[in-house]
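User: I'm putting together notes for a lab meeting next week and I want to include a structural view of one of the chains we've been expressing. I don't have a solved structure, so I'd like a prediction I can at least talk through. The sequence is below, exactly as it appears in our construct file.
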Amino acid sequence: MQDNKNLSEIEIENQKIIQNKDLNIFEALIPVVLLMGMLAYNIFFADGELLGAYSNQYILLTGGVIAAIVGFLNKVSLRIMLNEVVENLKSVMVPILILFLVGALAGTWLVSGVIPAMVYYGLQVLNPTIFLPASVVIAAIISIATGSSWTTSATVGIALVGIGSALGIPSGMIAGAVISGAYFGDKMSPLSDTTNLAPAMAGTDLFTHIKYMAFTTVPTIIITLIVFSIISLNISTTGTADVSGLLNTIKNTFHITPYLFIVPLVVIALILLKTKPLIALGVGVILAAIFAFIFQNDVLSNLSSSNINAIINAIFVDTEIVTDNEKLNELFSAGGMKGMLWTIFLICCAMVFGGVMDGIGALAKITKELLKMATSIFGLFFSTAMSCIGLNAIASDQYLAIVIPGKMFKNAFEDKELAPENLSRTLEDSGTVTSVLIPWNTCGAYQSSVLGVGVAEYAIFAVFNWLSPIMTLIFAAFQIKIKQLVKK
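Assistant: Thanks for the context. Below is the predicted structure for the 488-residue chain, given as structure tokens.
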């Protein structure tokens, strides 16, 4: 039973949307405006350390307190707000566990020689002039096969960043290419959770959604590949002369053998067999630890007096393998599970802010106001896209950025006699892909932490991600492939 008679809940896919008639749009925007102002000041004027190393986390919590005060003034009880915060935190428990395992994976894959082997062979195969477009294609293939941009980044993404960095390519460019390919695959894969969620919200079926989404997604990925091809032809790299020195350093430090590829291949095979990510990544950690004992005894001995201690440290805390090449020293370091704590704290704080905003009815209010702008067909698409992007920033969660607009705009699309696949496509083009461009969103925090590249560094190079909502609005403006409802 609700504490406030003007509060109501809509339940969809285990997500609650709370509406509050007492709250007006100006009050709903107060926490958002103050949060964005504080984050902007922290990033642009305080070098990210306004309140210390955890500034963004504290700012998100402050935003949650401001939202709670707005809620109290509008007769929303603390119980309702806390319930939504708890629900939000429960929803990210699995991603948090995955993050811990990714940290362990990075550490064990380093000391076992898996990542150095990927870099060693990759330097010989991937030419600098085609490296960036090749990274887009490789990440896209893996992501389509696995249905997960997160898994793609945690496996081939880490390796591609390492290889490209060794070639002298800026890490922001490499991360942008990996993320572009990974999110293309994530969108188009029938195994992806968001690709299944969007048509469920809009009221269409999975394969109709994927087929219709291809109209905007394929041109976007083609433009992305062209952009990265042009960039590749116009950037200077270290060249082949330096690569031979890197290869020698890697070979002198690690025992390099193709057998090390068994570890990532097993992980990818498990994911293709629809094994749960926690199990697949856990197997990857255990296998890598075993391979470290088999192939990298010298490396383990240099790290600790006990090989077992070296493995435990690789899983839980910092590991640094020193070589005679400064560039490789930066690459051959990992933070283990400990290195993921900053990101996990950020995600939890974002969930607190999003939960309070949802609890006081602010998310539903903002979306409803955007719906009022939908007086034309283009206005409807624009409002939907802006709602998805806005919720990625406010709620810090790509699922809410699909669920809430999906529910709120469904009737509006029907009223305009537009087929539901128009809505499902817009949800993915604007909700799924832009999540990674928001530093405090779960996706932005994850990708930044796993790839070791700040969101500000890769955002401009994540061409596919920021171009996708623009493409869907271009199609809407010129009435290209806008399917009408078939009247029975």
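A couple of points you could mention at the meeting. Residues 157 and 202 are 32 Å apart (CA to CA). The chain is about 70% helix and 5% strand.

User: Perfect, that's what I needed.
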